[in-house]
Structures are given as C-alpha cells and as structure tokens.
Amino acid sequence: MYLIQHNRLREIGIKIFEQLGASKEEAEIVANHLVESNLVGHDSHGVVRIPEYVGRIIGKPILKIEAPPIKLKAKIKVIRETPTTALIDGDWGFGQVVARRAMEIAIKKAKDYQVGLVAARNCDHVGRAGEFPLMASEQDMIGALFVKTVPVMAPVGGRGRVIGNNPISIAIPANDGKPILLDFAMSVAAGGKIIMAIEKGENIPEGWIIDSEGNPSTNPKDYINGGALLPFARHKGYALSVIVEVLGGILSGVGALADYKGINTFLAMAIDIEAFIPLKEFKEKVDKLIRDIKSAQRIGVEEILLPGEPELKTKERRIKEGIPIPEKTWNDIVEIARKLKVKI
Questions:
Q1: Which of the chain's termini has less CB crowding within 10 Å, N or C?
Q2: Please, are residues 281 and 140 in contact by the beta-carbon 8 Å criterion?
Q3: Distance between CA 192 and CA 251 in Å, rounded?
C-alpha cells in the first residue's frame, strides 16, 4: 500500500485523460471526482477506476459490459424541456461531466421556478453519486440523485445479474456548512468494493455476493466470473432498486434492467427550500435535528455521527496523511502513464 498526496493524484489523472484526447474541462472534472472519492474514503469510486475508464475510452474495456465506449469531448444536448424539467442526452460522454451538467440545469430551474428535475441518458459511469446533490446543498437547496446502473444484482429469491444496485443520494444543507449527505447503493456492498478486494488480494465478507450458481461466496473473483451482488436488507434494498429503475431508466425513456445498453442513466433533482419555509428557519431546525440526534445516549461509541460525517472526517485525515493506494492500482496507473508518455 502506498500513501499518495491528493494533489499529485489529481495532476496525474488530469494528464492521463488529456493525453487520451479529453478536453481540459473533462479531464479536470473526472480526475477531481475520482480523487475526491478517495479523499472521503470511497476508494471503490476513486483512482482505481482510471484503468477501467482508459479501457473504455480506447475501446478495450476491462469490465465486459455491453455499452458504447466513452466519447471524449461529447456534446451534451437538452432534448426536451419545460420550465421545471429537462431531459438531456449525454452523447456517451463521461458520466461525471453529464451528471454535473444535469445538476447545474436542475439548480438553475429551482432558482427560477422552485424545483428542477433533470433526467439524463446515454452517459458513462457517474461515479460517486454524492458529489452531485452536494452541488445543490452548496446553493442552499436540497439535492438528490437517483442512478440506474447496469444489472449487477440478483433479485430476492433469484440468481444472476438481473437488476442494478441503483444508488440514491440526497444532500441537505445545514448552518455549519456540513450538510447531511445520504449516499448509498442498494447492494450490501458496491461492486467497486469487490474490485478493490481483488486489487488487494483479499476475500470479502459472506453476504456480499453469490456466485454464478447462486451459492454464497467470499471469493471476489466469483463476482466477475458471473456472480451477482446481493441487496442490502434483502427485500428493502431490492424494492428500492426497482423504484430507481423507474425513476432513472424508464422516466428517461431508455427502459429498465437490461433494456438500456449503457452504464448509467439518472434523475437529478434540486428543491428551493424557501418555496416551503424560510431558509434561516429550515437550517435552524436541521441544526436542532443534528444536536438532538448527537445528544442521544451513546452505546459503545465516542460520538454519534450523522450521514456524511464519516466522509468529512476521512477527508480531513487523508488531506494531511495522503491517500492509501493499493500497490496493484498504483502500478497499473504508472504503466498507463508510461504508455501515454505522462511523467510521474
């Protein structure tokens, strides 16, 4: 395991994507997103994804997913619009770039008309969903993202990759500048965590996946060899995934499950708080909610944390200490840089 400073990782990521032909804006958005994911502790959505993205750009994907390659300098288009809604086509560009644009449109509509809803299709992997609702909370709005993924999860009582694990993220502003942030997929563990276990040469806990025959497995390689993720809380995670197939897939016009031959499609939302309650009063009530929860009697912990707090604490630590990168991941990035004549 190596410890790498975040600024160094950003610089390397930007140079790699630019050398492949990405615009400066695309390269910066994607590299910043990956490194920020590492900083907040979501390593499964961090720079470990660089080899995967490079493979998808050059038409040699590491993960065998039926989807078009990543299109560089993609032309994002609004194909249907009302004062409060929009449907956009990502032209098969970087998911992070498309998701950022979708949330920008949603925020602008919410400023003008109190609510903005933007569905997006034809884009690649959006990465860590939590980044985009935070854009709304930084504008003193409530933000949300509902992301349909490729089928990677088995339904309750079934086997095989039938349904996406379909992340949901919601960000709520608070007075101290530390928003409440919900961000999780509907599987027990994200697919990226399975990939991270393979990178580290480690087994995974029982209950995360089943193999191609439907048997429980702790070998992460069984997942990439035809296995499937399992939904968290069984029927609850599964049921939420069904709903996101509708909000993220059917609502955007591409269909559900395997009907959509792409990586991600999603629904972005921004809500103007002052359409319902004065912002000052809202934040005071959110602050009281936080205080009341944190003042609960503790059992076996030093502090009760709110959603999003573990990520903020991890970020503070990793900015000082560096980001831990598995040796295999670092070697893969170094090899990609060497081939592209990017100096490390």
A1: N
A2: no
A3: 26
Query: Is residue 239 within 8 Å of residue 98, measured between CB atoms?
Result: no
- Tell the residue number behind the tokens 């990465």, with chain if given: 127
Residue 242's Cβ-side half-sphere holds a number of Cα atoms within 13 Å equal to 9
Among 130, 79, 123, smallest CA distance to 105 is for: 79
Q: Which two tokens stand for residue 292?
A: 């009341």
Decide: 194 and 208 in contact? Cβ < 8 Å. yes
CB 92 within 8 A of CB 69: yes
pLDDT, tens only, 112-135 = 999 999 999 999 999 999 999 999
Tokens representing 163 are: 């349904």
Q: Give the residue from 105, 169, 113, 176 showing the smallest Cα distance to 142.
A: 169
Q: What are phi and psi of 182, to 5 degrees?
A: -95, 130
Give the strands of the sheet with 264-272, arranged side by side: 77-81, 85-93, 115-123, 264-272, 141-148, 168-172, 180-184
Domains parsed from the chain with CATH numbers: 1-64+297-344 (1.10.1530.10), 69-187+231-295 (3.30.1370.60)
pLDDT by residue (tens digit) across 217-255? 999 999 989 999 999 999 999 999 999 999 999 999 999
Give residue for tokens 């920008």. 104
| Strands 115-123 and 85-93, sheet pairing | parallel
As a whole number of Å, the end-to-end CA separation of the chain is 17
Asked if 94 contacts 14 with a C-beta cutoff of 8 angstroms, the reply is no
Conformational region of residue 323, where left means phi above 0, alpha means psi within -120 to 50, and beta covers everything else: beta
| Cα angle 91-96-100, degrees, rounded to a multiple of 5 | 90
